[in-house]
Amino acid sequence: MPSADMDPELQNRLKSAVWYTVGKIVDEACESLGVNVTPQYTAALTELVYAQAVTLATDIESFAWHAKRKTVNTDDVLMMCRRNEGLKDVLEEFVEELEERKRSAKASKAGHN
Amino acid sequence: MSDSNSDDSDSDSVQVTFPAKTIARLLAENFTRPETRVSASAVETAAEYLRIFTREAVWRTEGALKAAEAPVSASSAPSSRARIMEASDLEKIAGTLVLDF
């Protein structure tokens, strides 16, 4: 569901930002795989990733509201992977590391003050 | 349940990922209710989800291409070394990729 109500100018800017990062991730993956892609490939992948991001937004919002919250948290994003065990494991690990980093940042800050 | 640490965490430098600012804006613009907020950690996790999605797309395209090439190159002369993936190659795996995410 592309957001028809979004300002097209803003949508273009966001898509350019997504395209830039998609390009970098693609380059990285291509290097390890020993392949190349056409610019059209990256453009098509950008559209796919953008569409996925729009779906992600509406899904995580629904999960949060279903849990009677108005603020989306990491659990809502993890809910996206409920049908993919491997992806769930990887993303759960990411969240754990994220929380660990935040805890130690807080601890070192408290130690210095 | 398999331990797959070798996958991501051992890559030397910082992983390229989507900027939090971009993802935060993208999410906010697509929420349907004006009261919806999102935590900073959720934004970072969303960026990671999209990074994995993007990388997986490239890997699957390459896998499908390799699988399609194998029987041909076994019977005929091997084609050129450098494989170039095109938008049409992405289209072939896009459906199942989206289903799996």
UniProtKB/TrEMBL annotation, chain A:
Keyword RNA-binding tagged: no
Task: Note the InterPro entries from the entry.
Answer: CENP-S/Mhf1, Histone-fold
Query: Pfam families of this UniProt entry?
Result: CENP-S
Keywords of this entry: DNA damage, DNA repair, DNA-binding
User: Which superkingdom heads the taxonomic lineage of this protein's source?
Assistant: Eukaryota
SUPFAM superfamilies in the record, alphabetically? Histone-fold (SSF47113)
Q: Give the UniProt family note.
A: Belongs to the TAF9 family. CENP-S/MHF1 subfamily.
Name of the protein described by the UniProt record? Kinetochore component CENP-S-domain-containing protein
Question: Which organism is this entry from?
Answer: Myxozyma melibiosi
The lineage, from the top, is: Eukaryota, Fungi, Dikarya, Ascomycota, Saccharomycotina
Automatic annotation (TrEMBL), chain B:
> Which Gene3D superfamilies does this one have?
Histone, subunit A (1.10.20.10)
Q: What is its main location?
A: nucleus
Localization: Nucleus
User: From what superkingdom does this record's organism come?
Assistant: Eukaryota
Tell me which positions the record assigns to the signal sequence. Answer: none
KW Nucleus (keyword) present: yes
Keyword vocabulary terms for this entry: DNA damage, DNA repair, DNA-binding, Nucleus
Q: Does the keyword DNA damage apply?
A: yes
Name one matching Pfam family: CENP-X
Which protein family is it in? Belongs to the CENP-X/MHF2 family.
- The entry's protein name is Centromere protein X
